[in-house]
Design a protein that fits this description.
Shape: globular
Mean pLDDT: 77
CATH architecture: 2-Layer Sandwich
Number of helices: 3
Number of domains: 1
Helix content: 25-40%
Distance between the termini: 5 Å
CATH class: Alpha Beta
Oligomer: single chain
């Protein structure tokens, strides 16, 4: 049985765990703290063309923040969508390289919906539409799919 990964995420944080169902254990593999997910629209600035940018100069994985295209969306919505796409891209890449067999995602409904549109359709996903980012491992595991033991 290949690894089962568990993503616990919202707009401001994404934690990836390796789930070992037989040991009933979650091991944190990676965590991304996305400060911009906590910002309000007024915390973003725009260039002369109206494209939203964050006030911080750093970028994750070389992905820029400006010029995301849709001027009808708020800067916060655009930034949250960018973060969700970045998380999905990392998951798709890991699945492509056979790093895990199935994925369980614990996330609020809006984040979940956005994430699922960017994940490869062949990734087996169990969905828990709940924000569990600030929860401990026991609470997270209580929401995981009990049929995980049957996955091969």
């Amino acid at each position: 049985m290949r690894p089962i990964w568990v993503l616990v995420a919202n707009n401001s944080q994404a934690d990836m765990y390796d789930f070992q169902p037989y040991k009933h254990q979650l091991n944190l593999m990676d965590s991304i703290n996305h400060q911009e997910g906590r910002w309000h629209n007024g915390d973003f600035i725009s260039d002369k063309r109206g494209n939203a940018t964050s006030m911080h100069s750093h970028t994750f994985s070389g992905m820029g923040r400006s010029g995301l295209g849709d001027t009808n969306k708020s800067p916060k919505t655009i930034e949250n969508a960018r973060f969700t796409r970045m998380v999905a891209k990392a998951i798709n890449s890991a699945y492509q390289s056979h790093s895990f067999d199935s994925l369980q995602v614990c996330a609020p409904p809006k984040f979940m919906g956005e994430l699922l549109t960017h994940l490869k359709k062949e990734i087996p996903v169990h969905k828990v539409t709940k924000d569990l980012v600030s929860s401990d491992a026991g609470k997270i595991m209580s929401h995981l799919n009990p049929l995980t033991l049957d996955l091969k």
